[in-house]
Write a structure and sequence with these properties.
By secondary structure, the protein is mainly alpha-helical. About 50% of the residues lie in helices and about 5% in strands. The protein folds into two domains: about 100 residues; about 160 residues, no CATH class.
Length: about 260
Amino acid sequence: MTDTAQAVALWRRWELPTWGVVAALIYMAWLAVTDWHAALPIWFLLPAVSVLLCWHGHLQHEVLHGHPTRIVWLNELLVFPALGLWFPYGLYRDSHLAQQTETCQTCPIDDPESFYVTARRWARMSALHKAILGFNNSVLGRFLIGPVLASMVRHRAQRNGFVSTRPRRPWACFTSTNNLHAVHHAMPSVAWYELPAIYRAGRERYLEDKGGFLWNGYRDVFRRHFLRPKDEPVHPYFEDGAAVCFFARPVMGLAET
């Protein structure tokens, strides 16, 4: 094995991208921003903090999927500093893992991350409530109301409810390859930096599995759904308390950025 091959093997075995490129960078940058916040202009400070919080969220996502080590307490110690303050890691971990293991992805009853509602609940809502939910399925709605744009883009009620997005700069710095969401759901234990190669190797199979649906970058999402809702709030496959549920089946090929 060549020196380069040995270095690559060590890089992957010890998950050094997560330790060094992500974790060390996040905390060093956070300490620097915190220490120098009074001297930094607001136009730089706010975007910098937003990016760091976004990256820290990706680090938490890696940890709950068993990275960068096989030792749970050590992984969780890595994300113990609650940089975002508002969302405890334990709550995020439990709800996210429930979302990925429920028998009905996007189900408005069982999936804690679903943005859909049942037809019965919809019928009881006021016109104002319906208008708010519809608006919240647009890009502008997600920025003003929330919770997050990425969840709206990556999950939809269809046979394979997980969608991938080709990131374009500057959006790529926010995604940490989790834009390849169909691949992540098919292979949730794979580290974030391995997903692009997996997607490229099995791109056609992934696209076929989800009907060829692929966002052409977040610019495409903004162009198509800045004001227009991406989906109707009512789940199309849920009726009378029973859902027709579809999974993202594991496709053992690999992916793209």
